[in-house]
Amino acid sequence: MKFNRLSLCAGLLCLAGCASTYPPTNFLKNSPSLTEGNHFRREYVRPGVNFMSYDKVQVLPVTLDFFENTDRVDHSVLPALAKIMREEFEKALAQGRTVISPDDAPDAKTLVIRPALVNTSASYNFIDIGSLVIGGAVTSGTTSVEIAVEDGLSGQILAAAAEKRKSKGRGLQREGKDTTVTSLPHAEIASRKWAKQLARLLAAS
């Protein structure tokens, strides 16, 4: 069997695919209606808000309370995935702002981020040319997130977002962490993308 160079490269890379929407849950029921956005597939930004006036950010633990059951997903790995998602959000949002602990009391200069992991599906590609070269399980599938951004003092929703992302990822060891990569590396790839998208949204004045 022959593989061309393009196929080999595709097998070696962790690729993030297109973004779409997922039927919304009740997580954002208190948010104004979301429309097609500039940073997420669906988003809301409060008119006149100046995100740059906030010099602190607090990322709350990613909730799984609105997660919908999906076949072929090991639900025991979801808490670790939620932890990794929160870490990615904190890392991306630390640029230019002080990150405070979820245990701290937010004030009027704090943006509070409330993320919810609401869905993921997975296809496990055990026979993959990249796996033969590098090693590590390869998964592809979709992952859905909903995010609320609130004023730390009033609790008012300043922004909200919802997106379903199709992606592909390879499981590798995460050195220096108390857990290894989850069995859903494609969902971790999506988390990194969302963290960067959220950082760009909150960099807008």
Structure summarized in a few sentences:
The protein is α+β, with helices and mostly antiparallel strands and 205 residues long. It is 23% helix and 29% strand.
Q: Explain this structure to me?
A:
- This protein is α+β, with helices and mostly antiparallel strands.
- It has helices spanning 5-12, 78-93, 129-133, 185-202; strands at 16-20, 35-36, 42-45, 56-59, 98-100, 110-120, 123-124, 138-151, 157-170.
- Strands 1, 2, 3, 4, 5, 6, 7, 8 and 9 form a 9-stranded mixed sheet that branches.
- The longest helix is centred in the last third of the chain and has 18 residues, at 185-202.
- The termini are far apart.
Secondary-structure blueprint:
Blueprint: H1 5-12, E1 16-20, E2 35-36, E3 42-45, E4 56-59, H2 78-93, E5 98-100, E6 110-120, E7 123-124, H3 129-133, E8 138-151, E9 157-170, H4 185-202
Parallel strand pairs: 4-5, 4-6
Antiparallel strand pairs: 1-9, 2-3, 3-9, 6-8, 7-8, 8-9
Helix pairs in contact: 2-4
